[in-house]
Amino acid sequence: MLRRRPQVLWLLLPYVLYLGALPFVNRVTPVVFGLPFLFVWLLGATVLTPFAVWMTRRGDRR
User: Fold this and answer.
1) Amino acid 22: pLDDT
2) The pTM is what?
3) Contact between residue 25 and residue 38 where contact means Cβ atoms under 8 Å apart
4) Is residue 62 within 8 Å of 5, Cβ to Cβ?
5) Strand partners, 36
6) Quick check: 9 and 2 in contact, CB under 8 A?
7) CA atoms of 24 and 60, how far apart (whole Å)
8) Residue 55: per-residue pLDDT
9) pLDDT single digits (tens) 6-44
């Protein structure tokens, strides 16, 4: 499937941001804009998820 549709790999981005990197960003001490780093990381992952879906859709058009 990936040989014919490599754009599907964009859908791994939210998975990696939410679960794969979670043990590495689970910190409270760095504060960004007054918020714990983990909260900022999850907010950024939420914002980037529609971008990953859009990139997959854009590559899937034929």
Assistant:
1) 81
2) 0.72
3) yes
4) no
5) 31
6) yes
7) 32
8) 86
9) 777 888 888 888 888 788 887 778 888 898 888 888 899
Contact 9, 60 (CB under 8 A): no
Tell me the C-alpha distance between 52 and 14, whole Å.
Answer: 7
Torsion sign, CA atoms 13, 14, 17, 22: negative
pLDDT value at 1 more than 60: no
What's the residue count for the chain?
A: 62
Residue 41 CB coordination number (10 Å): 21
Q: Are 10 and 52 in contact (CB under 8 A)?
A: yes
Alpha-carbon span 34 to 28, nearest angstrom: 11
Place of tokens 């590495």: 24
Q: Across 3-42, where does the E strand assignment appear? A: 31-32, 35-36
